[in-house]
Input
Amino acid sequence: MSALAQMLESRGLPTTVLALVLPQVEKTRPPRALMTPFLLGRPVGEPNDAGFQRRVLLQALSLLERTDGPVILEHFPDDPPSWVDRADWVPAVSLPPLDPMMSAGTPPSPAQWEFALRAEMVQVLPAWERFKARFGRTTVGLADQPPQDWPAFIASFLAGGLPGVPLHDTPALALRFLVDDLKALYGEAAQADGGPPSARQLDQWFWRKTVAGQLLIALRAFSLTSENSALKTVGGRFFVPVPYLPA
Output
């Protein structure tokens, strides 16, 4: 984006960049940039906080009025309010405690993982429907498969298969987008009722207390042993965030 901004500026079109990684923006030196201290993928702050996001956008757009460049770098001064844990937050989905077998001892078989995820999704899907009704949107849809098909699709990889879907070029890409959809669906379902949690609360719930989170950790470990280089790359880079990798 910084290189694109430089090209557009050279043709007379003012630009401003929202930056999340300070060393990168210092190296690439876009003409104007607002450095925001938020999570990757959330350049204007947390979802569903329109007032805060408007503040970020207005500060970024205000850089277009300045002519003291060519390099202008400002820092947004505040963390988003929803980064603070909410003491009263509980997920909109009430799930039973995890089976200890999922995180220790003999790992479940592909069929056991499929059964466990399917049973958990029966509980999660109604909350996801409430989220969609409440907010009128969803970010789920990359996989080009209905959620009911996800458990079997993931289990087939754990069993050594490489299934695909017509929309995506490779099985690894199809699995990556399904994993993205699975995380998005659970995150939306957990926020179907009440106020928003902090990003940390939502992540800890998903990765520590759901079958889906434990399955993705197991799927990543399996992918790293695959002879399929694309699956190994996708699994290692995109399935599980670093803070939630097994010690």
Summary: The first helix runs from residue 2 to 10. The chain is about 50% helix and 5% strand. The radius of gyration is 21 Å. Residues 35 and 75 are 5 Å apart (CA to CA).
